[in-house]
Amino acid sequence: MAHSVRSALFEHLVVATLLLTAGFIARGAGGQAKPGEPTDPKARKTFAEAVDWEKHGAKDSAIDCYRKAYKQDGGHCSTCLERAYKLALEIGDYKSAEGVAHDWLSAAQTDADRASDHFSLAVALQREGIADKEAKCVSDSCDEF
Q1: Positive or negative torsion for Cα 49, 25, 143, 86
Q2: What is the C-alpha to C-alpha distance for residues 141 and 145, in angstroms, rounded to an integer?
Q3: Contacts of 50 (CB under 8 A, 6+ apart)
Q4: Exposed / middle / buried, residue 95 (Cβ in 10 Å: 0-12, 13-18, 19+)
Q5: If 0-12 CB within 10 Å is exposed, 13-18 middle and 19+ buried, where does residue 12 land?
Q6: Which of 4, 13, 76, 104 has fewest C-beta within 10 Å?
Q7: What pLDDT score was predicted for residue 137?
Q8: Where are the alpha helices (DSSP H) in the chain?
Q9: pLDDT score, position 143
């Protein structure tokens, strides 16, 4: 029984990862007003710092800087959040990934964006639930899906 549950969770995780990747591709192709790096000079400096942290393997510091750059840019830098989210999932910092997804949700302007953002939040919650063996996170992820 435990093996089949674990297999089912793994299959869901694989499907979620594939769908998340498709969501990132769709988000990039959506013709957003300010794609790419931040436009605010202070945010650009923070973004460059995040890239440097990432290059040197300090992914947790990079996540913090990407999120800071997003805020400094007035919530316009989608690349900042995408990089922070990707790194957070990569290192298992699911709380940060949830925070990024909530930032996306608060900035979403279309139903398609909101759907993609709820999906991103669901992935973070599901991975947290599996990693920490928390049924509530898995249950919350189902609501988000």
Answers
A1: negative
A2: 6
A3: 61, 62, 63, 64, 65, 66, 68, 69, 80, 83
A4: exposed
A5: middle
A6: 4
A7: 75
A8: 2-28, 41-55, 59-72, 78-91, 94-107, 111-132, 135-144
A9: 78
Would you say 56 and 87 are in contact if contact means Cβ atoms under 8 Å apart? Answer: no
Written as six digits, the tokens of 36 are: 């790419």
**What CATH number did the domain enclosing 17 receive?**
1.25.40
Which of these, 55, 120, 126, 109, lies nearest to 81 by C-alpha position? Answer: 120
For 18-33, give the secondary structure using H, E and C: HHHHHHHHHHHCCCCC
pLDDT at 27: 47
Q: Which residues in the chain land under pLDDT 70? A: 1-35
Please tell me the total count of domains within the chain: 1
Residue 39 lies in domain: 2-144
Token pair belonging to 86 = 């990707």
